[in-house]
Task: structure prediction
Amino acid sequence: MLARRSVLQLLVSFAVIAWFAPVAVAQAPTEKLDPAMIAKFKEEGMQRSKVMETLSYLTDVHGPRLTGSPEIKAASEWAKYRLAEWGLQNAQLEAWGQFGRGWSLEGFAANMTEPSFTPLIAYPKAWSPSTPDTVCGEPVYLNATNDEELAKFKGKLKGAIVLLSPPRDVKAWFEAPGQRQSDERLLALANADPSLPSGAGSGGPAGPAGRNAQLTPEQRAALLMQAKKWRLIHEEGAAVVLEPGRGDGGTLFVQSATLPTPAGQPGAALGRGLRPWSKDCPTIVPQVVVAAEHYNRLVRMIQKGATTKLEVTIKSRYHDDDLMGYNVVAEIPGSDLKDEIVMLGGHFDSWHAGTGATDNAAGSGVCMEAVRILQAVGAKPRRTIRIALWSGEEQGLLGSRAYVTEHFGRRTDTFPGQIGGGTGGAAGSAAESIEQRPQQPRGRAKYELKPNHANFAAYFNLDNGTGKIRGVHLQNNDACRPIFRAWLAPFKDLGATTITLSNTGGTDHLSFDAVGLPGFQFIQDPIEYETRTHHSNMDVYERIQEDDMKQAAVIMASFVYNAATRDEKLPRKPLQGEIVSSESTSK
Result:
């Protein structure tokens, strides 16, 4: 009995092994990590960090870094010097193409002078022209809601200070404006449906097309009326336009000046592609964003018939001596796989009301700190590691898109303004953002690829504020799931565990993803990104979370090092389309 039972047990064991063997063969190989090196990253990055020093230089010393401005050029030169000082090679400002004229603010004041003096919390929009000296007078409240009411303002706006919009409703904050990712939110990301559109269920922006598709007829009509107001303001020759800012409590969000639309074309941008930074852009009306509480008071006073007088002065300067845009690029050379490239980066440009701290000195500073850590601990990557700090991101991912096109390839079947093709940028006017563009026939995608496309290993991006890394978006590349799970394992104690198939949009990893290259954006804690700092006057050094920046830099250094030392490049999603040409030599 004992012998027979042993034989039966042996036969069963062989059967079990045979049954499960195919599964074992199909499993992905275990990732090779270097625990000693990761420990060095943690020690260097958490105990001898330079990230806050870097961030202070970028924000306090160099301040806002508007693309095309002297300020971003000076900051870029400083970053190039610092990277070279840390031992990176080929540090340079690489021109990516003609951007347009730069802009700087040299003086500004906005005050209510009657019935009593009150300084207004306000900022000019970027690329707003100067006012002719100081503009003084009673403001005109352009409160038209239809064409008949708008017609009554004809002949009344020349040289006027115009209040463009209705007052904004300002609510009390019953929940803190700063938050971290909740366990429920991270679980939802981990279980995200990859079939949802980019940004849906992932916290990323859906983009102008997605937002416009969700507009109600009433909202669309209101935006069209706003476009008609802008046209009348420019036609009449108003002196300056005041708008209520998004935000409250002294925080306001400020971006670029609004262009008018040609008469009879309510759905087309002026010049079809012109932006306020375009060298051929016609003269536009000076424009100012005012804190909602101050703007609302002005409207209420006018509605009550109180005598209200304002004075506004804008002194700005356009810079057209160098119309090129530049990215900051530097490398840590590889060894046996030096022709293959691993990249990390974030956008370097910012808006002008703050100092661009969380958007995106944070991401740029983390990337700089990551390569500093690699150099400090003597890491020896097999693949070349290349850092890139992009400009023109706020105008439509311009710097990274041009870089990918120049070095790796492009998609040729897209119309201007889409990622991967054309020369357009971000929406430049209220009218363009609500345009009912006819549906473009979408056939099979077509790509022109360069030889370095095959040598590209991975790109890692950071651009969602000051929050620590909580995981990574797979960007629908599920083959990277077991790899990134292994890479995140050493950072469980630092709160980084979540992997999601969901896409996220709105930043420079999309330029790589658009041509089939593995490009990834990390999941971050939101902190105060959308509520306080993103594109606002409060995007300053004080909003940076030091411990989060240290954590992010250590994880970034580890991801880049792992990608640069593993035997194989990261797996790619299948390129859905046709390769119509592939250059035999790289430029």
User: Anything to note?
Assistant: The two ends are 78 Å apart (CA to CA). The chain has two domains: 35-92+323-422+447-582, 102-175+184-319.
